[in-house]
């Protein structure tokens, strides 16, 4: 059998050929090895079939820009519509919001007239790393800042409130040519110096 031609993406599949002794003439041990080998090949084929080409970085960066613009507009509905109907959001205080309707209510409180975020200009998010899970699902990790909050869900120090460093993690689902958030997790980041260096810990 000839090798298939390369697909348009960088990943392509190769037919794996092998010779095995007739099943009926092998020992129990050899038969077990045969089945394990066959299972491994089948598993490898299943994994290979899910490989996809990575999108251009601007694809997912554009999503963050759209989110930032909606957040800067202080429009609760514009923010909510970037989320799936059954979205789950976990904020940096550990509070959970289930569903787009509940999220929109929270955004009305935060961004509406008199709300703690209504007149604040937020810094833009910075994409750290993105990963495609399959053709229609991706994860994003971004750096962000939110204001320090005080009692009663108000800003801790009025208009001069300090900023808290956040790690913003999104699970995205592609709907046509757009992305929707199906889960969003926010974590406060406390800086710490480790005795080693990595790409993200300089």
UniProtKB/TrEMBL annotation:
<dbReference type="InterPro" id="IPR032710">
    <property type="entry name" value="NTF2-like_dom_sf"/>
</dbReference>
<feature type="domain" description="DUF4440">
    <location>
        <begin position="61"/>
        <end position="181"/>
    </location>
</feature>
<protein>
    <recommendedName>
        <fullName>DUF4440 domain-containing protein</fullName>
    </recommendedName>
</protein>
<dbReference type="Pfam" id="PF14534">
    <property type="entry name" value="DUF4440"/>
</dbReference>
<dbReference type="InterPro" id="IPR027843">
    <property type="entry name" value="DUF4440"/>
</dbReference>
């Amino acid at each position: 059998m000839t090798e298939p031609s390369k697909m348009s993406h960088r990943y392509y599949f190769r037919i794996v050929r092998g010779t095995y002794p007739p099943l009926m003439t092998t020992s129990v041990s050899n038969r077990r090895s045969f089945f394990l080998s066959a299972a491994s090949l089948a598993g490898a084929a299943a994994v290979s079939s899910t490989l996809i080409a990575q999108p251009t970085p601007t694809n997912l960066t554009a999503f963050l820009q759209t989110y930032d613009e909606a957040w800067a507009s202080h429009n609760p509905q514009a923010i909510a519509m970037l989320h799936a109907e059954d979205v789950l959001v976990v904020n940096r205080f550990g509070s959970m919001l289930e569903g787009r309707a509940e999220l929109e209510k929270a955004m009305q409180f935060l961004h509406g007239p008199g709300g703690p975020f209504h007149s604040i200009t937020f810094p833009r998010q910075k994409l750290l790393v993105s990963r495609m899970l399959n053709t229609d699902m991706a994860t994003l990790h971004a750096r962000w800042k939110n204001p320090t909050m005080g009692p009663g869900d108000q800003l801790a120090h009025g208009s001069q409130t300090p900023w808290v460093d956040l790690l913003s993690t999104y699970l995205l689902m592609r709907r046509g040519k757009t992305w929707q958030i199906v889960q969003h997790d926010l974590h406060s980041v406390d800086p710490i110096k480790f005795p080693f260096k990595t790409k993200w810990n300089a």
